[in-house]
Amino acid sequence: MPTSALSHLLLLFLALLPLSTFAQTPGSRISLGASLSTDGNTSWVSPSGDFAFGFHSLQDQDLFLLAVWFDKIPDKTIVWSANGNTPVLRGSKVELTTDGQLVLTNHQNQLIWRAPNINGTVAYATMRDTGNFVLTSTDSAVRWDSFDHPTDTLLPVQVLGRSRTLTSRETKTNYSEGRFEFRMQNDGNLMLYTVDRLGRQTYNAYWNSKTVGNGSQLVFNQSGYIYLSLTNGTVFNLTADNTVSVPTGAFYHKASLDFDGVFRQYIHPKTSQSDGRWEQSWSIVQFVPSNICTAILGDIGDGACGFNSYCVLEGDSQMPSCKCPPGYTYLDQNNTFKGCKQDFVSQSCEMDGSRTEPKYDMIEMIDTDWPKSDFEHYKSINENECRDACFVDCFCAVAIFRGGECWKKKLPLSNGRMNPSVGGKALIKRARGSSTSPPLPSPGLGKGKKDNRTPILIISAILGSSAFLNFFLLSLILWIIFFTNHKKIVKLQLDSSLIGVNLRSFTYMELEKVTDGFKEELGRGSCGTVYKGLLESDRANFVAVKRLDKVVKEAEKEFKTEVSAISRIHHKNLVQLIGFCDEGPHRLLVYEYMSNGSLASFLFGSSRPSWNQRTQIAFGIARGLTYLHEECGNQIIHCDIKPQNVLLDDNFTARISDFGLAKLLRTNQTQTTTYIRGTRGYVAPEWFKNMAVTAKVDVHSFGVMLLEIICCRSNVLRDLEDRDDAILTDWVCDCYKEGRIDKLVENDEEALNYPRKLERMVMVAIWCIQEDPSLRPSMKKVTQMLEGAVEVAVPPDPFSFISSLA
To answer: Which helix (H) or strand (E) is 762 found in, with range?
Structure first.
């Protein structure tokens, strides 16, 4: 054959080859070796053209997601993505490799994503009309599909089986993982959670189907109905509106866990209007929860909106909106769900109790609350007293007055909501002249207040009378004004010490009766013995009565003063003091009763607590100590931090007990050496070195206890001194040096699933137990490191300080 003829045949073959091998008609099989790129063919389309798989460009950015989207409607709505956390630049490629792997690489040919858990050999891929992208074997068996690995959206005929999760986006246009999860749990319960952004651990659930043991899978059927299929053959509808019928033939359907934490079902017409225009937005069919603003109420996290903001439903669609209170502005104007910050200088504690410098307003907001930011709570109090109590307290940012009760709040404010169901009013402290809202009348004006301009009007009215009468009346008015202001000053001084409002003084006989003759002992320690009691005034209220064995003789006269100081302390991670007895030789303290006992019995019992519970307990203790050291009126050094002095309430929230007792107890009332406060194994080394004792002694004790929380074992294994792990602090440091911290949580699969968090907590603990107190971080820094707010540097050998002192 002539060379020219061969050349023509070769050119014809090469021209036909892409059509037969690589070019994909809508819905055709995608062969092994096929690929898409951001610079060439960008998508594979389903047979109907409704859906496409490939590179979707992000709005106003030269970035791309590997995604599945509705391809016929103008906004090309994404329903699944592979790399939401790591968008790729132009020049990236996705390939169905010759060995059946689906692989995404970036412009530098670095692996970004690979389809996980492919079950068997893959022969080809298809983009189906259901919106499911599928990898298939030669016998048409599904080896991997996007429906089984959802991101934030479900489509008709898709199910959410047990152990499957939807995760919200960060914002409407940011596809990285957000703050919410919709999870079909192994126990059959369908739940909506808030999650932490760092470790992706769940916080509190804010909606659930209550189908434990009975739920099978969440079904989005072909007719557009969404329901939970139950094991008994019945179904559970998510909302009462689930019977609404919207034909799938005329409308596209989708259901998404949106970035604001609401799970919504949407519809969109499949065809344009008669004038050729498309309906640009999706319409909502149903959603849960019914009110996201009030649904989220967790001890941890910021709520539906960010810290220092509040959530309110707006419009007919009842979409949540995040607002800043007066005196606050958004952290990020482009993301109002991120929270707010003060736009004024906070009140100085050095001027605590002064109304003159700096000047602040208390601004009213009706039906508004931040219910998880309390640090003090008063009962049987009026609004003016509530307002004044916050006004003179440098820690108080907001006071809530409702039904004769007053709650003082400190920053950051969490779980903010505005809703008629909230009731009452919020009193926002704001520096006068802040730009976010017009100045309000001074605290002397407004509802329930007398107008202070009245005396001026009276003086003006009497001018022109006789000189003597003028002099007499003017003197009388000045005396009245002086007397009135003097009363206000005295009242303010009294109100600034509202500590006695909730603190009750008991007689010894009363407490003997409350405890049934000190019958049921809850515990015994260096401070005294604790007994369980029941108040007659409230048969549902158990209390813990601590009888102090010995009180420093010089402090007996100061007992009430110290007890009053302790009663000022209010924090969710501290046990609240209810009352006291100071009668003759008897000194007793009455505390809240903690139903779940001590951290010691919780940690060192027969069963190992969950990793999530342990980490949250550690965080709570750190926050409580931060408050004692830096945030309450006078710094309190606990001096005896140990698991026995941390109690757990009904929700297993950590509550520190016995704080503030150091001044009341004899110095030799300890389990260690005379003049040393604390318990052997937790005592900081400076007690033995004749060095100044600071709040760093609590940091050391916390570090030891943090290691006990991590490892679920006591610091010292008694009668086993020959073992390498007999002393926990030594063993942990050895394991850390060897790079084997996994040995600390052996057989604890849950802890091993979070290696970075485990390493961070161990490093923080090693910083805390440094022999040199100056190397230990403050408890505030410890809290920030534990929560991931600041980086944790590599800690030095904690015992190097010993050799320098030897």
So the answer is: helix 755-768
Question: Domain map of the chain by residue range?
Answer: 454-500, 504-592, 599-805
C-alpha distances (whole Å) from 446 to each of 350, 435, 442 are: 29, 21, 8
Q: Provide CB contacts within 8 A for 658, sequence distance 6+.
A: 525, 527, 546, 638, 640, 645
**Residue 595's pLDDT band (cuts 50, 70, 90):** confident
Residue 640 annotated as catalytic: yes
Output the CA torsion 550→551→552→558 (10° steps): -170
Percent of the chain with pLDDT over 70: 78
Examine the pLDDT at 581 and tell me if it is beyond 60.
Answer: yes
Confidence of residue 265 (pLDDT cuts 50, 70, 90): very high
User: Average pLDDT over the chain, rounded to whole?
Assistant: 81
Residue linked to tokens 């006990």:
708
Cβ neighbours of residue 716 under 8 Å, at least 6 residues apart?
Answer: 681, 726, 727, 728
Q: What is the pLDDT of residues 514-530, one digit of tens each?
A: 999 999 998 887 678 89
Q: Which of 296, 289, 338, 339 is nearest to 318 (CA)?
A: 289
Predicted confidence at residue 760, as pLDDT, reads 93
**What pLDDT shows up at residue 539?**
52
Cα–Cα distance for residue pair 283/262, rounded to 1 Å = 14
Token couple for 242: 């689930």
- At 432 the pLDDT is 80
Mean of the pLDDT values across residues 84-109? 93
Q: Name the catalytic one among 369, 393, 640, 658.
A: 640
* Residue 44: its H or E element: strand 43-45
Beta bridge partners of 534: 542
b/e code 712-730 from CB counts within 10 Å (16+ = b): bbebeeeeeeeeebeebbe
pLDDT value at position 337? 93
Measured distance CA(161)–CA(723) in Å, rounded: 47
How far apart (Å, rounded) are the C-alpha atoms in residues 291 and 305? 13
Query: CA-to-CA distance for 259 and 181, rounded, in angstroms?
Result: 10
Crossing angle (nearest 10°) for helices 696-711 and 779-786 = 30
The CA distances from residue 616 to 73, 622, 647, in Å, are 45, 10, 14
CATH class of the domain defined by 599-805: mainly alpha
Whole-angstrom distance, CA of residue 178 vs CA of residue 196: 9
pLDDT single digits (tens) 3-20: 444 343 333 333 333 333
CB of 215 closer than 8 Å to CB of 228: yes
The pLDDT, as a whole number, for residue 718 is: 63
pTM, two decimal places: 0.55
Would you give the distance in Å from CA 591 to the centre of its chain?
Answer: 27
| Gap between the Cα atoms of 676 and 673, Å rounded | 6
117-130 pLDDT per residue, tens: 898 899 999 999 99
Backbone dihedral angles phi then psi of residue 209, each to the nearest 5 degrees: -80, -15
* C-beta of residue 668 within 8 angstroms of C-beta of residue 674: yes
Question: Cα(733)–Cα(8) distance, rounded to whole angstroms?
Answer: 75
Measure Cα distances from 649 to 542, 543, 576, 596 in Å.
12, 12, 11, 6
Domain boundaries 504-592, CATH class: alpha beta
- Say how far apart CA 136 and CA 124 lie, in whole Å: 6
- C-alpha 778/C-alpha 75 separation (Å) is 51
